[in-house]
Amino acid sequence: MLENLLLRTAIGLLIFIHVNAQNQLVEVATSPEYQWNGVALTKNGRMFAGFPRSAGDATISVAEILPTNVIKALPGGDWNTFNPINSTENVENRFVNVNAILTDVNDNLWVVDAGMIGNRTIRNSAKLIKINLQNNMVERIYSVSSLNPPEGFALNDVRIASQYAFLTESGIGSIVIINLQSGRVRRVLDKHPSTKFDAPTVVRVEGRKVLDENGEPKKMPNNNLELTPDEKTLLYKPSFSYNWWRISVADLTNESLTETQLGDRVIKGSETMPTGGTTMDNEGNIYLMDLERRAVWRQKPDGSLSLIVRDDRIIWGDASDVSADGFLYIPVSQNNRLPGFNNGVNQVEKPYRIYRIKINSALRTKSVSVLVLILIFMKFFVG
Ligand SMILES: *[C@@H]1O[C@H](CO)[C@@H](O)[C@H](O)[C@H]1NC(C)=O
Ligand SMILES: *[C@@H]1O[C@H](CO)[C@@H](O)[C@H](O)[C@H]1NC(C)=O
Ligand SMILES: *[C@@H]1O[C@H](CO)[C@@H](O)[C@H](O)[C@H]1NC(C)=O
Predict the structure, then answer these.
(1) How far does the centroid of ligand 3 lie from the alpha carbon of residue 256, in Å?
(2) Which SUPFAM superfamilies does the record match to this protein (predicted)?
């Protein structure tokens, strides 16, 4: 009887500790002026943010967030000064419209320049940039101009493998593959239904339908992607689709396959929900930024989902990152409050914020040890 009560109290206490510790979003940085939609961390905790140009012409594109919230443009100089109103030259060597940033296993920073502002294609500006974080200098620029990108083409996000970069292209919907050594670029699956906007999906964020400036359901073609830790499978999805699509990297990089053959090898993956951003930890768990519920889910490689947090402050959780010490960093982009996603009305409330939440299993291990200790104690004194 007493043992039972103690046990139930112990389990109750455990769940309480667990839920309380796990449920808390902590604000780590704010951007008073410029919208951000991505965060990336190095292994030793340097933090970077990516700033698109969806909320206005002026922005700084890429910055390091220093302690005490100092936002320092990176790499600096002319890279960060492009402005579509008054400073539009040299687009090959400047950030025109950064849509994604990523740190790789060697702590290089990768930057995706969409090559498009709003619906305006800026010729020769779509590119992937590698920044060496030892010296904060641009090490290599991978232009995609050789694709002769069609009107509407927009690079979106990137994942880096040993030999390739894989990018989603979200203007028309396709996948772009860059050979990191040769710089050779290919574009595939641009006619495949998996890369297209899943009409007639209408997504609601903060209770409002996500509508473009003309009041039509916002179209979001191929957007989120993840590469499994073994580099064998690429997952991708349009933001508003309800499932992942999967393709083997061996097929994706096999140039002898025709588009039809490649398309036939695309497999429907796990069920998800409309997501503002995703990230994967090194065990292959994916963290999904659930737009409609303002929540974050962990999806195991087997597809099962568990809730990490639900919080009204996650107003379009965007491209997140997992830190070496086991926190998930979540940038809040408020995209759904921008005119282009909100039926022409601007409802953004500055500043923009980045939160983090503990996600690793250290706490659970500690709680389990506490439970084991209580059980041993009970066995000794009670039983
Ligand atoms: C362009 O305009 C921005 C303000 O939007 C200003 O900060 C910047 O200095 C201007 N650049 C040039 C080259 O005039
Ligand atoms: C681009 O957007 C502007 C308004 O932002 C609109 O007037 C124009 O028709 C659009 N052009 C295309 C090609 O969609
Ligand atoms: C590429 O695809 C062709 C056709 O299916 C196949 O014969 C070949 O083995 C593949 N190459 C590689 C490296 O997988």
Answers:
(1) 7
(2) NHL repeat (SSF101898)
Ligand 1 center from residue 56 Cα (angstroms): 13
pLDDT tens, position by position, 98-111? 999 999 999 999 99
Considering every ligand atom, which ligand is closest to the CA of 248?
3
- Could you tell me which residue, 51 or 375, shows the higher pLDDT? 51
CB of 254 shorter than 6 A to ligand 3? yes
- Inter-residue contact 116 to 122 (CB < 8 Å): yes
State the average pLDDT over residues 29-54. 98
Whether this model's pTM surpasses 0.70: yes
Point out the ligand 2 atom lying closest to the alpha carbon of residue 120. Answer: 1
Confirm if 117 and 96 have CB atoms less than 8 A apart.
yes
Choose which residue among 186, 254, 258 to substitute to test ligand 3 binding: the one with the highest number of ligand atoms within 8 A of its C-beta: 254
Q: Which tokens is 176 given?
A: 């772009």
State in Å, rounded, how far the first CA of the chain is from the last one: 11
- Domain 20-35+141-365 grouped into CATH 2.60.40.10: no
